[in-house]
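R.M. (postdoc): so does anyone remember the format we settled on? I'll just put the structure tokens first.
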């Protein structure tokens, strides 16, 4: 029906009629938006509580012998330290005896586990260069039972150079670790189930020491551009170590970190990594998470900082997978 545009009454009717019949009120609109928002969130929460239940029903057996795992990737910022700290805390939380060896001069793993590591602290530097023992420098994580740390200090920055002229320069970490394992046995202390070594982002002598001391390498891969770039160099170095210094060493585990389910890029990286490492890559992916990023500023793992967070759940699941894969 045509109404003249200059009829004010008609204009009022024609504007208001649809408003009451078709367009939802602000309140209705909010509630529709809320329910749209709530359904994926509710689904996510339901999924998380299912995952938590599954985890709590899983029995995890201790390994036959101590598993020594080097966490390495010569790229910085891919989640090596975050993974070391949180897997170690998750395994201790699952009831295992865990040791973290920090061999990055930055000492981020020491910080993340609440261990003092000022320049005066006796540390892995004194073990590698001055023949102190692990027992001399070991510290207990204040927030997590059964989790000990060999801290790193800034002195370690000089160790790459200082090691060059020392006898058995590639084996110094391995020897110190073996000596400590034997000493624990003699003292009747519980056997270590898992040892993690947090590497610096380089392939120098410190990392070589970590490869020689370990049975396994865990490579964290960030779900970002260039994720696989540089990886062949890392794998070549590992092959060299296998050939000359530590034949049993193997890349046992790849962990995808900082995964963002909303991006196609992350999905592409996952596919590509799975294609190259079908056996090694864990099903669990570590999501990009604010809680994971915040925890170190409280000198805590995400497990002790916010156990109910998705980030903590992911690391607990990754730890369980690591145990089950043996
Ligand atoms: N899953 C994650 N979600 C959010 N931030 C993360 C996550 N993993 C690592 N980070 C952050 O990314 C940065 C680099 O991680 P880090 O573990 O220190 O890497 P690397 O030891 O390989 O250099 C840190 O600031 C850390 O807090
Ligand atoms: Mg680091």
């Amino acid at each position: 029906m045509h109404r003249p545009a200059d009829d004010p009454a008609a204009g009022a009717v024609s504007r208001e009629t649809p408003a009451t019949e078709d367009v939802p009120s602000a309140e209705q609109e909010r509630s529709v938006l809320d329910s749209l928002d709530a359904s994926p969130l509710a689904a996510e929460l339901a999924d998380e509580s299912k995952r938590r239940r599954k985890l709590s029903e899983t029995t995890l057996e201790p390994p036959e012998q101590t598993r020594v795992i080097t966490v390495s990737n010569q790229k910085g910022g891919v989640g090596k330290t975050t993974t070391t700290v949180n897997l170690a805390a998750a395994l201790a939380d699952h009831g295992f005896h865990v040791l973290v060896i920090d061999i990055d001069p930055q000492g981020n793993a020491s910080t993340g586990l609440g261990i003092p590591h000022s320049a005066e602290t006796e540390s892995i530097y004194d073990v590698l260069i001055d023949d102190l023992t692990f027992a001399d420098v070991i510290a207990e994580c204040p927030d997590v039972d059964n989790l000990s740390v060999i801290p790193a200090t800034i002195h370690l920055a000089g160790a790459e150079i200082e090691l060059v002229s020392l006898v058995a320069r590639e084996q110094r970490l391995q020897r110190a670790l073996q000596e400590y394992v034997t000493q624990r046995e003699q003292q009747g202390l519980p056997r270590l189930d898992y040892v993690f070594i947090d590497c610096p982002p380089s392939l120098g002598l410190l990392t070589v020491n970590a490869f020689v001391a370990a049975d396994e390498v865990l490579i964290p891969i960030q779900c970002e551009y260039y994720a696989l770039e540089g990886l062949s160099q890392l794998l070549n170095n590992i092959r060299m170590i296998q050939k000359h210094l530590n034949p049993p060493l193997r890349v046992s585990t790849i962990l995808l970190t900082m995964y963002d389910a909303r991006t196609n890029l992350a999905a592409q990286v996952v596919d590509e990594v799975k294609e190259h490492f079908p056996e090694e890559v864990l099903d669990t992916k570590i999501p990009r998470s604010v809680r994971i990023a915040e925890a170190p500023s409280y000198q805590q793992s995400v497990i002790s900082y916010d156990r109910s967070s998705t980030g903590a759940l992911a690391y607990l699941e990754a730890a369980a997978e690591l145990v089950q894969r043996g």
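R.M.: ...and that's the designed sequence above, right after the tokens. Also worth knowing: Residues 26-57 form the longest helix (32 residues). Residues 1-21 have pLDDT under 50 and may be disordered.
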